[in-house]
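Crash report, auto-generated. Payload:
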Amino acid sequence: MMHFLLLFSRQGKLRLQKWFTPIPEREKKKIVRDMTTMVLGRKPRSCNFLHWKDLKIVYKKYASLYFCCGLDAEENELLALEVLHRYVELLDKYFGNVCELDIIFNFEKAYFILDEFLLGGEVQETSKQVVSRSIEASDMLQEVSERPCSR
Amino acid sequence: MSPSVRLQEMIRVIRGARTQGEERGVIQRECAAIRAQFRQADNGTRSHNLAKLLYVHMLGYPAHFGQMECVRLIASPRYNEKRVGYLGAMMLLDEKQDASLLITNSIKNDLSHSSQYVQSLALCTLGCMGSAEMCRDLAPEIDRLLRASNSYIKKKAALCAVHIVRKVPELGELFTPASRSLLSEKNHGVLHGAVVLITELCERNPETLEQFRKAVPELVQIMKGLVMSGYSPEHNVAGISDPFLQVRILRLLRILGRNNETASDAVNDLLAQVATNTDSSKTAGSAVLYETVLTVMDIKSESGLRVLAVNILGRFLLNNDRNIRYISMTSLQKIVQTDHNAVQRHRGTIVDCLKDQDASVKRRALELSLALVSAVNIRSLMKELLLFLSSCPPELRAHTTSGIFNAAERYAPSQRWHIDTILHVLTTAGGDVRDETVPNLIQLITTATELHCYTVHKLYRALIADISVQSLVQVACWCIGEYGDLLLRGECEETEPVQVAEDDVLDALETVLQSHMSSPATRGFALTATMKLSTRITHNVDRIRSIVSIYGSCIDVELQQRAVEYNALFKKYDHMRPGKTLGPNYRLFMTFVSHSHPPQSVQLQMKAPSGDVIPAHGLGQVTQTVLLNNPNKVSLKMRVRVCYTSQDFVCQDTVQIDSFPSPAW
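Recovered output after restart:
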């Protein structure tokens, strides 16, 4: 399973953090620091896999954002790259040519999309269209429930 | 103004802060306002305030006062409030917080909500942060949803069940019947969830594993369908139909086929099919192939299939994608012992990876190369390893030198090759070798009697070229002291002899003695060598005597002691000198038994011997004090080896000390 998924900028600013195992707040901060230090310190043409404690770390840079996840040792790293890529595609479809600012100003939407794609650290839906349609439907439901007359 | 703009407005203001202090100020004000609003009655802005708080939390500021608000919002009948409330619960609450229990009831209600999107929120939250207690409480609900709901809910319920089983393994039994029937679903999301759930159940319970072996044919069919199906727009990734599902099925088949002939047989054909039909030009295909290889190697596959799998790994080594090269190496490392011959076939490619730019790939290539050394390939492989050593990254040097030495010791085709190899390593990386390299090399040289002339020539040349590498200088000094007469003779079979005079040799040793680069130990070697030459040369004994007496007042106590004793020898045994090669090359070796290196905490200090000559006929003795510092009182056993020459014969005595006086440990 995936233990955590982090998105951070080139300056190490955290843009999204999803934790799939219960970890104390202080330790979360330490993990984030370790991940940003390790990943940002990598040379440009290194491979995308690292080891950290007993986890495999898979990361990929998309424009100005680093997508970084921590996996159990028996996970398939190449597939993890595909998982990260799929999430980026979903964000891209939703925001239309997604960029870091979209994720900063609409962070809650980024989480909602993630929660339609992964659940409990595992992939929950393998079809892009199904995920996109579910998000659209949820958004419409949200819009309806926000209208004053629906109080 | 739409409420969500207020959130974005706040984000804009925070980002506009020019200093950390300014940011803190803005956030403190916002949090105060949010707190105040939380205390008020419902005014339609709760969800947006919580969203603001979640943003602030992501920046690293405390947000625990929002926990109860999450509980309240989750209980709201409005979807937009539930949505943010559940998000907040996943971010701010975990099973360790008391507040998390308070949402159990809301989750229970929402699991039966009429809207599947509300059900989805509850399932997602439970699957993300549900505590063991919550899981026990809600497991029957999840089982119900696994059986009777639409595919949107079923797939989420399956993964929720996975989380529950991880938290409360005994509940696995509850989900086993439902998970079996899920395999007949067509929906990929549900299938994927089912496979993940079954995998989890089988990993935790051997009886369940036994049961699910019966499902192998069904899984094979599903997999075949994916591999042989035509283009499916909904699930296609770079020509592969649903690589996520394929990989999970392969992993489940691995678990089911492990240690079981029948199950392994049933998947042999499928694995061969996947291995040959999967297009690996993109990552998706490579991911599937990689999982296939792992499965082949882990179950009881036919040998032909195993070779096929290793060949796939070999092909991966040639891939342009660095990631694929890396995982190929890690996989090869795992099987190099069990499938040694198959991996040997790819030795050339592996050795080429020593030149890769990526440090991780280099490291893996080194490990694999060392594992592949054999008597057959030692010469060619050592050439590559020595080449690698000359340009390898500093953090790998020590590992490389010790790997090279081990390989040389095991498979050296000749003593000359062995000596040459060690000398090459010392010249290239003499600063990164272990301490016992020097005595080990001395030992090796001593026993290679036909090569003494060759060796002393080689070492002399190395010494006059460079005296900075201590290990090399020490061995060179010792060798010159020992076989200096062969050097001066001016003839050698194995190599071009040097034409040196006694003065040249003494010049070289004196340079070492005087150089600031020489460590005290090195100086000791040089002084002893100078002394030994006094029995092997004829014209320059006086020069030696004067060098030795200078060091009689050296500030280094070790050196001083040696020099004084040697001086005494000059006086006492002058009459024995001419014509007799009596000077013993006394060397005391001590090694710790049953440790390849001394235990870390124990320190060994060998003092200079009391003398260099043991007179004949029992007329005297030589003593040498060895100080052992054993602060951790580790139990010690030592083997002591004494090397010396007597009347031109090299002798060796070994004695083992099994028990030290009890205060020692």
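Post-recovery validation: The first strand of chain A starts at residue 2 and ends at 9.
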